[in-house]
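Task card 7
Instruction: Convert sequence to structure tokens.
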Amino acid sequence: MKYVVRSLKYLVLLCVLYIGLTYLMSLVEPSAATIWQQLLTHLNTRNGLYMVIVFILLAAFYPKFGFMRSRIEECDIVEDRVRIDNAMRLFGFRVVEEGDTKLTYRAEGIVHRLSLMFEDHIEVSKVDGGVELRGLRRSVARVALQLQSYIKNRRYEQDN
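Output:
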């Protein structure tokens, strides 16, 4: 069910983006036709049909490539809690659920949450030899890179 909801959210986002671009084009080059007439005219062509098909396919596969898991080696969820919190805070996430083996973070602020289509949670789970981050691809990739940097810095702190 979560997969279908995510696909529908992405389809709505693509449609809103298309309508917004059509509106901007009508501002640049005004015509006698309304925006809705322009949309219907374009959608009734072969290219419009292809665009609808591409939108549906993108939305159908978005949950497959829009979310990811990233594993951080040599990171402990308890010992490195401050580093994990700092990496999350740097990108605008705050902890909402805590446990010994799992942490859940959500985006702060409605604008940040809206920009992430309310798919704004990142789960940090304890796995053998490290932690695993799960969530929206762009958020997890940013946080994972920063957290890996913090873990490398920890190794240098221990050498001194």
